[in-house]
Every structure is written in C-alpha cells, then in structure tokens.
Amino acid sequence: MAQFMQTLLMVSVMFLVLGVGLRTTIGQIVAVARQFLLLRGMLANFLIVPLAFYLGMLWLPLSLDVKIGIMIMAAAPIAPMAPPFVGMAKADLAYSVGLMAIVALLSVPLTPLILSLALPEGTGGLTVDPWSIVKILLTAQLIPLCGGIAIRRVRPAWADQLLKFVPRIGQIGLLISVGFILWEQVEQISAIRAFEHSIILAMVVASLLIGDLTLIGETVGRRRSLAIVTAIRNVPLAFLIANTSFPGTTVASVVLIFSVFSMLLSVIYGKLTIGRRGKEAGS
Questions:
Q1: Which CATH number belongs to the domain containing residue 241 in this structure?
Q2: What share of the chain is helix, strand, coil (3-state, %, to 5)?
Q3: In total, how many domains does the chain have?
Q4: Are 174 and 81 in contact (CB under 8 A)?
C-alpha cells in the first residue's frame, strides 16, 4: 500500500506539473531567467530558508526526528505542485515556473550539500543517493514540464484541450494520496508533541514571509508567487530522502505535517493577499 501511495503521489505531481507546462511558453521562462529576480528567488530557497531553519534547530527543544524532518524540507525547495498553487492565488505563474525549472537542476548538487552541512549531530550517517534525486526530479518535474511546454509550442489547441482535465486529475490524485498517507501515519503523527506541531507551523509561516520579503519592492503578484513556492517545499524529494535514509522513524511524518501546513497556509495566504490587492486597487 505504501508503494502504491508513493506511486500515486508521483503520478499526481506529474499531472500537476504537466498542467503548468501546458500553460507556459519558452519565452516566459527565458524572460524570467534574464531577470535579477531569479537570483533573489534562488537565494531565498537555497540560502535564507535553510539558514533560518538551521538556526532555529540549534535553539529549539525539539526531538531529533523533528529536527531532521524540518531540515530535509529546508534542503528540498520548490515542490512541483507549487506553481498550481501560484495559479490559484492569481500570482506570477511564469516566474514560479522559471524558478522551479532552474531550482530543479540546482537541487541535484545543492540538496545533498545542504543536508550534509545542516543536519544535527547524531543523525546516524546520512546517505543521500544523488542519482535517486536526479531520477525523481527528472520524473516529477523536468520531463512533464518540458513536455507540456513543447505541446503548448507545437500544438496550442491540444494544450487548451488537455488543460480541461489534466490539472484536475493531478489535484484529485494528490488529495487521495495525501489522505491515505495521513491515515497510514496517524500513530506516528500523534506521537509528535503539540509544541513541535506549532514549530512546524511557524516554519511554514517563516517560509512565506521570507519569500514575500525577498521580493520587497516588486509587484504584489511576484511577491505572492515567491512566497508560495518558497513555503511549498519539494515533498516527493523529501519523502524519498526520509524513507531511504531514516526508515522506521517519524521523519516522514514530519515531512507530511509540514507539507499539509504549507499547502493550507499557501491557499489562505493567496486568498488574503488577493483580497488585499483588490482593496488597494479600489481605494
């Protein structure tokens, strides 16, 4: 059942990312890549968030598994399902897709490096297989994203037709897989203290704020976009690391709690900031 749920999660993410690609053109990504804003987004995800989380782990009285789970999330930036949340928030989708594509490449060397530097002592010999990270990034992000962009470029009419059902399939699959994982790990989740739940929630809020403030002075749409993609970390990659390096622990449960909090808060954040923009435009 666990293997089936992981497969369902992976396929659902592939459909979500395919939907993002079907909405995106090469010109949009190139335009983002030429901007200094891209560097600010990478700094937020590969430097500021991991550093902030690491400093928090040094001082907060958390169990070792919770610290490891939080740091894995810090080292795995921008989930492939993040751009659809950006779209729901009516933020800058092209910026989020361009950033996601480049971060997907940089994650291969940087995620293992961040983990080796940031994990607390006594984690028992971290073993992260770079090729496994490459495979999950290729399968879940780059291949469906490039496929969708190619279809949009060559057959725009096909892209419009596929958009009628491809994102919905991904959304339904994601809800089912997360629901089953929650049900399967209810005992592990209940073993995590309420205080630790609150810290995980605070880390998600911190990620939103870091993404938002990193682009201070830019448009509301771009600030909202970076805030959401910074908060929604790469859950499939994090699950891979947790399950292969720390089996039989509550590390995977921490990853799950973080991912659920990040998706819920990103939706709330998006709705609140959309309302704020509407009020500012009307004033």
A1: 1.20.1530.20
A2: 80, 0, 20
A3: 1
A4: yes
Burial-class residue 176 by CB neighbours within 10 Å (0-12, 13-18, 19+).
middle
pLDDT digits (tens, 9 = 90+) for 158-189: 999 999 999 889 889 878 877 887 787 788 88
Q: Is 280 part of a structural domain of the chain?
A: no
pTM, whole model, 2 decimals?
Answer: 0.80
Q: Give pLDDT tens digits for 132-146.
A: 777 777 787 788 888
What is the distance between the alpha carbons of residues 247 and 6, in angstroms, rounded to a whole number? 15
Q: Which residues contact 151 (CB under 8 A, 6 or more apart)?
A: 21, 22, 158, 159, 162
pLDDT band at 147 (very low <50, low <70, confident <90, very high): very high
Q: Which helix (H) or strand (E) holds 274?
A: helix 251-282
**Domain coverage including residue 92:** 2-275
Which residues, 6+ apart, have CB-to-CB distance to 124 below 8 Å? 246
Whose tokens are 């880390």? That residue is 203
Query: Of 168, 156, 24, 152, which is closest to residue 100 (Cα–Cα)?
Result: 24
Q: Following CA atoms 170, 44, 67, 228 in sequence, which dihedral angle do they give, to the nearest 10 degrees? A: -30
